[in-house]
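seq as requested:
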Amino acid sequence: QVQLVESGGGLVQAGGSLRLSCAASGRTFSVYAMGWFRQAPGKEREFVAAIRWSGGSTYYADFVKGRFTISRDNAKNTVYLKMNSLKPEDTAVYCCAADESSAGFGSWGQGTQVTVSS
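struct tokens:
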């Protein structure tokens, strides 16, 4: 299994930026894709962005297109989420997840809190 540790969350004013990091360890050779999800209080968890480990194809939820960028550093087994033009509605716990061998996102990190003040 893959272990994931997120970092980089915090408090930022609306319009500001943050960069989240997710470091993977363990069976990283089996990673097919990595993704970011978020869950706001009282809401369902939702998909934010994903990136294929080989080739680097990226996928985004409509509500972050043009504002968030997902990237990866294969040598460091780390995936990043650069978030620009943050809005109060982006406030949530952000978790990264690993899709091993194209089996779906089955490994999850603990999450990091992002709070955007108005």
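The first strand starts at residue 2 and ends at 7.
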